[in-house]
Amino acid sequence: MTSAVTVYLPLDSAAVSLRADDIALALCDHPEHRFDVVRTGSRGMHWLEPLLEIDLDGKRHGFGPVTTQNLDSIVTSLLDGQVDHPAYLGPVEDIPYFDQQERCIFERCGVIKPTDVEAYEAHGGLKGLRNALTMSAKDVCAEILDSGLRGRGGAGFPAGIKWNTVADAKADEKYIVVNADEGDSGTFADRMIMEGDPLLLLEGMVIAGIATGASKGIIYLRSEYPVAAEVLKNAVVSAKDFGLLGPDVLGSGRAFDVEIFMGAGAYICGEETSLLNSLEGKRGEVRAKPPIPAIHGLFGKPTLVHNVISLCSVPKILEKGAQFYCELGMGRSTGTMPFQLAGNVKRGGLFEAPFGMSIRELVEDVAGGTRSGRPIRAVQIGGPLGAYLPNDMLDLKLDYETLANSGAGIGHGGIVVFDDTVNLLEQARYAFEFCAEESCGKCTPCRIGSVRGVEAMDRLAAGADPEEQKQLIADLCEVMVDGSLCAMGGMTPIPVESAMKHFPEDFDVEKR
């Protein structure tokens, strides 16, 4: 019997939605040839999914998108050693979209089986943790602070300050809590890394535990991610078997364990204090601050709350040092960011690069402009509560300070593109509607202000006393910013005000 041919196919949700599981089954049950199908994460080039890869001449070559219709001809091409198939892409890492990236976080995603700890280590994993185990907790915290790493969940708060606060707190127990409740529209980096390289997240959690004195970590995962849940569960088992988790981490005598908690689908639980309430079995609503979670968090204990990408950035810092990380990016925006390109784009997917690229470079050069072929009119950055920017602002650099000075923010790195058919009044109304649907209801400005905002937008669209409605909307935005307990209500005005500022013609209903 001939030996099996090894091929690589993503188990990522994006690929699965495009029938990657059916393709895997067809290869495994092929009537004439034997295939060893290794399920990996996604390379992030979603317009090419499902992407089938094979080793040729020491490089991984790709075919995509693969369908059940073209699979047989691809198999024939593979086995005949021919590469003139219409779906043949060449060496995957030479594809321009991929070649332009600098991958510090997603370097193994799409390369290895996600739960194989030995493969993870063979491809550079665990170096950061092994270095951390030779250092004092204080020095590990200092490395994170000196690196300039800022939280990738949206706020951009310096991670090192959080770490030092938790480390300095006195308590009999501390926690590392991962905010994996990735609910922003147009974002999928957390999901991709949890499905494609979950051991990186576990390594980052262990390093954080060593640095802060925590011995337990909890991953708060959104219920809409069943594939990530399954992969994470298997990764935790593999990590325990390897000794990466448990009472004696890599023989160091340090203890750290991880459990996975499934959320119930509430967007508000992406806010850290609401998430902590949910973990404690309470209603998912925002807590007043102070006290901050770093001092009085889960069950009243000091708690380091980070999003997935924040913790996945940590191993590389401990592997190569704070100086290496500082040299990536620009200004106070150090390191790399996985930008997620979505909406009306020709080439949607994940693109990891150091801070400092312009929005235009990403959406026009990398993503190829709109899928419709029409001109770009607006780009929303930072999820459903992010700003809408017009075409003439797309030369802004993607870093925290530049965008903040322009009334925008990077958020979780989601970038959603709209062509010239978009109606920004409708988009602004959606921001209010989204807040009304997802508010926890604890504070009046968010709970009531969002509903009044929807009503005012509807009256404005109908042409009922437009100037009065515009003034009412402005007043509502001011109250929501000043009076809301958390960013849910406080940030809802950002898409509303940016739409009204940059696209006033869509709100001049009397001139239509």
Explain the overall architecture.
Helix 7 (137-147) crosses helix 10 (198-212). The protein has helices at 13-17, 20-28, 71-80, 96-99, 117-122, 127-132, 137-147, 159-168, 189-196, 198-212, 226-242, 272-279, 308-312, 314-320, 322-326, 359-366, 400-405, 424-438, 444-461, 466-483, 487-491, 493-502, and strands spanning 5-10, 35-40, 52-56, 59-63, 88-91, 175-180, 216-221, 257-262, 303-307, 329-330, 333-334, 336-343, 349-354, 376-381, 387-390, 414-419. Strands 2-1-3-4-5 form a five-stranded mixed sheet. Strands 13-12-16-14-15 form a five-stranded mixed sheet. With 512 residues, it is α/β, with parallel strands linked by helices.
Question: What is the topology?
Answer:
Elements: E1 5-10, H1 13-17, H2 20-28, E2 35-40, E3 52-56, E4 59-63, H3 71-80, E5 88-91, H4 96-99, H5 117-122, H6 127-132, H7 137-147, H8 159-168, E6 175-180, H9 189-196, H10 198-212, E7 216-221, H11 226-242, E8 257-262, H12 272-279, E9 303-307, H13 308-312, H14 314-320, H15 322-326, E10 329-330, E11 333-334, E12 336-343, E13 349-354, H16 359-366, E14 376-381, E15 387-390, H17 400-405, E16 414-419, H18 424-438, H19 444-461, H20 466-483, H21 487-491, H22 493-502
Parallel strand pairs: 1-2, 6-7, 6-9, 7-8, 12-16
Antiparallel strand pairs: 1-3, 3-4, 4-5, 10-11, 12-13, 14-15, 14-16
Helix pairs in contact: 7-8, 7-10, 9-10, 9-11, 18-19, 18-22, 19-20, 20-22
